Amino acid sequence: MISIAIVGSGRLAFQLFGVLRTLKGYEVSLVLGRSEPALEVFKDTQTSTDFKAPITEQLVFIAVSDHAITEVSSRIHVPNGIVCHVSGSVSIEVLNHHANRGVFYPLQTFGASEIMSFKEIPLLIEGVNESVFQTLFSLASEVSNRTLAMNSSKRRSLHLAAVWVNNFSNFLYTQAAEFCKNQEVPFELLGPLMEQTVKNALTIGPEVAQTGPARRGDTNTMNAHMESLPTEDQKKIYQYISEAIQEKYKHEL
After folding, report:
1. Which residue pairs from 206-210 have beta carbons closer than 8 angstroms and sit at least 24 positions apart in sequence?
2. How far apart are alpha carbons 9 and 196 in whole angstroms?
3. In sequence order, what are the residues at sequence separation of 6 or more whose Cβ sits closer than 8 angstroms to the Cβ of residue 207?
4. Rounded distance, CA 120 to CA 105, Å?
5. Is the domain of 138 the same as that of 43?
6. For residue range 228-248, what is the model confidence (pLDDT) as tens digits?
7. Is-above-0.85 flag for pTM?
8. Which of 134, 150, 166 is a domain's end point?
């Protein structure tokens, strides 16, 4: 039985806890966090707020915010285990305090409160040596059908791309939802369009899939849209993105 400790009590820590505790041959035997109330959701497992006590588990997952990884790594004492973080944008080198270190990065957003399946989530693995890598890769293969090796530089680039497709696009969804609310039209009606947009991007590629008034050079429609937008920020966003699309596809106009 391989013992696992999770350091952190946020959304990703909770998701890892839910998935890893179901695996045969593995046991989540410790969850370490700063706040006792935040640890209450980790049922039937030992929890602690004592960062000074040695962590004797064989695998230690640091599942905290990116800016806190370095500090947390330096605070914990892991005599023999493998220490890994779960960030896409942070280098493996921030774990230099530990001889056996690695990265176990799930390429997904974890806004949901229910336990998610990791089967189709890409897991990107890095290890300081072959032994660490194989241990993490073996575990990842038990969790996901899409496990692959990726170094810190490539993983950082993919994380940046993930910000474009997830965080930025979600912000545009927020703008659309606010606009729909103000205009008293149902935002939910855009659901099939949103799903088809993603499907097209993955099947024929986003460059080919691009449609809309900016690609067509339909200035009349774009001007009408600009007049309908209620805030200066929304007008700036609409104008900047429309101009960027026009620049990219100007050879077609």
Report:
1. 210/245, 210/248, 210/249
2. 35
3. none
4. 13
5. yes
6. 999 999 999 999 999 999 999
7. yes
8. 150
Sheet holding 2-7, edge to edge: 47-48, 26-32, 2-7, 59-62, 82-85, 101-106, 123-127, 147-149
| Digit-coded pLDDT (tens) for 193-203 | 999 999 999 99
Residue 42 belongs to domain spanning:
2-150
The tally of domains found in the chain comes to 2
pLDDT digits (tens, 9 = 90+) for 136-181: 999 999 999 999 999 999 999 999 999 999 999 999 999 999 999 9
- Radius of gyration in angstroms for the set of CA atoms belonging to the chain, rounded to a whole number: 22
pLDDT value of position 112: 63
Distance, in Å, from the CA atom of 18 to the CA atom of 20, rounded to the nearest integer, reads 6
| Tokens 């041959």 belong to residue | 25
Residues 120, 173, single domain; the answer is no
For residue 57, what are the CA distances in angstroms to 61, 78, 131, 138, 226?
10, 8, 17, 17, 58
